């Protein structure tokens, strides 16, 4: 391997003859992979960015994980030096910046099923309570009442959200195709009807929950993107919200504020629950086995019964991906408003 000489302060500035030469036939090459570890979305405090750490894998540890997997790692924490290119030439100079990284010694992918992470173990008392609840005939109603109890009404919506959180069973058809078991729900209607509060509640109670706003979301941010690594200058893939929420729930607020091109990009992720990428020489398919809970407003701000379908500004292709669509109206009812006032007060 070639050894480079960088003169330090106080040394001669004359470059010596390099005595090392690379012999390709006698070199021993091993597989090498660079990964970026990101903090779990549910562990990130509100208003803060998730923390990242660079990983270095070699030999049999390469190609063990895919974007969106939750892993447990064992490795050696190290620090590397950064080099900066000089303007006008190709030489690199050493900077005073140090970057931490982890040299991986072992990887364990935490999967308790298709797209499901291994969650905490329940105590015997909790398991006993679950079994007693399952035997009750009103278990469905009790679970629905526990969904956002501070929000009055919206019983049918809460029942649908309960089904969304529990999810269904994925089925493998005889021809090899898969029928998704996750449920997608769309809340469409007037402002001030607690749609965003329901989305926030689902994000908090879901073991894997990601919340995003339609105005600040793009196709790459929801699915996946290909970026260039500033260190190695090679292309690498980063998973979006629907990849990170594999096995959980993605809550998209202000769904009507998204661009139509961005909504088209999630068609495959919502129905086939996969994301196909073919960019910059990277061709792969990522899993996005998650439920989608979206909230949107009417085109006219408030729902107008006289205009019918004109209130909805969505293509039929995206509406067909939702299993349940609810029209939420802020009806002018004195008794209902009095009850809401008493509960708030």
From TrEMBL:
GO MF annotations for this entry? 3'-5' DNA helicase activity; ATP binding; single-stranded DNA binding; single-stranded DNA helicase activity
Task: Tell me the Pfam families matching this sequence.
Answer: MCM, MCM_OB
Q: Does the keyword Secreted apply?
A: no
The name on file for this protein is DNA helicase
Query: Biological process (GO) annotations?
Result: DNA replication initiation; double-strand break repair via break-induced replication
**Keyword DNA-binding belongs to the record:** yes
Q: What is the lineage of its organism?
A: Eukaryota, Metazoa, Ecdysozoa, Nematoda, Chromadorea
One cellular component GO annotation, for this chain's record? MCM complex
Q: Please name the source species.
A: Ancylostoma duodenale
Q: What are the entry keywords?
A: ATP-binding, DNA-binding, Nucleotide-binding
Cite the InterPro entries for this sequence. MCM (IPR031327), MCM_CS (IPR018525), MCM_dom (IPR001208), MCM_OB (IPR033762), NA-bd_OB-fold (IPR012340), P-loop_NTPase (IPR027417)
Its domain of life reads Eukaryota
As for family, the record states: Belongs to the MCM family.
Enzyme Commission number(s):
3.6.4.12
User: Which enzyme class, named as a word?
Assistant: hydrolase
What PROSITE patterns would the database entry show?
MCM_1 (PS00847), MCM_2 (PS50051)
**The MCM C-terminal AAA(+) ATPase domain, residue ranges:** 139-344
């Amino acid at each position: 391997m070639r050894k480079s000489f960088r003169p330090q302060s106080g040394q001669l500035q004359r470059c010596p003859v390099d005595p090392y030469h690379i012999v390709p036939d006698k070199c021993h090459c091993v597989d090498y992979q660079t990964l970026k570890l990101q903090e779990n979305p549910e562990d990130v405090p509100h208003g803060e960015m998730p923390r990242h750490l660079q990983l270095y894998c070699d030999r049999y540890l390469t190609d063990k994980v895919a974007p969106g997997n939750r892993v447990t790692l064992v490795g050696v924490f190290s620090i590397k030096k950064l080099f900066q290119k000089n303007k006008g030439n190709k030489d690199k100079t050493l900077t005073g910046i140090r970057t931490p990284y982890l040299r991986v010694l072992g990887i364990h992918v935490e999967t308790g099923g298709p797209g499901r992470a291994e969650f905490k173990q329940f105590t015997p008392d909790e398991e006993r309570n679950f079994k007693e609840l399952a035997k009750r005939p009103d278990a469905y109603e009790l679970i629905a009442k526990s969904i956002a109890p501070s929000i009055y009404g919206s019983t049918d919506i809460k029942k649908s959200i309960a089904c969304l959180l529990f999810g269904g069973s994925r089925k493998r058809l005889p021809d090899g195709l898969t029928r998704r078991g996750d449920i997608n729900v769309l809340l469409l209607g007037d402002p001030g009807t607690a749609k965003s509060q329901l989305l926030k509640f689902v994000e908090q109670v879901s073991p894997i929950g990601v919340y995003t706003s339609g105005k600040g979301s793009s196709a790459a941010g929801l699915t996946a993107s290909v970026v260039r690594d500033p260190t190695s200058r090679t292309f690498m893939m980063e998973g979006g919200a629907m990849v990170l929420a594999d096995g959980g729930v993605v809550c998209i607020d202000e769904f009507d504020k998204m661009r139509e091109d961005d909504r088209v990009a999630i068609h495959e992720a919502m129905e086939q629950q996969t994301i196909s990428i073919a960019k910059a020489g990277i061709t792969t398919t990522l899993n996005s086995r998650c439920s989608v809970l979206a909230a949107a407003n009417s085109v006219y701000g408030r729902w107008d019964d006289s205009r019918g379908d004109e209130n909805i500004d969505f293509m039929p292709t995206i509406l067909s991906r939702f299993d349940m669509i609810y029209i939420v109206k802020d009806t002018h009812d004195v008794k209902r408003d009095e009850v809401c006032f008493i509960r708030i007060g």
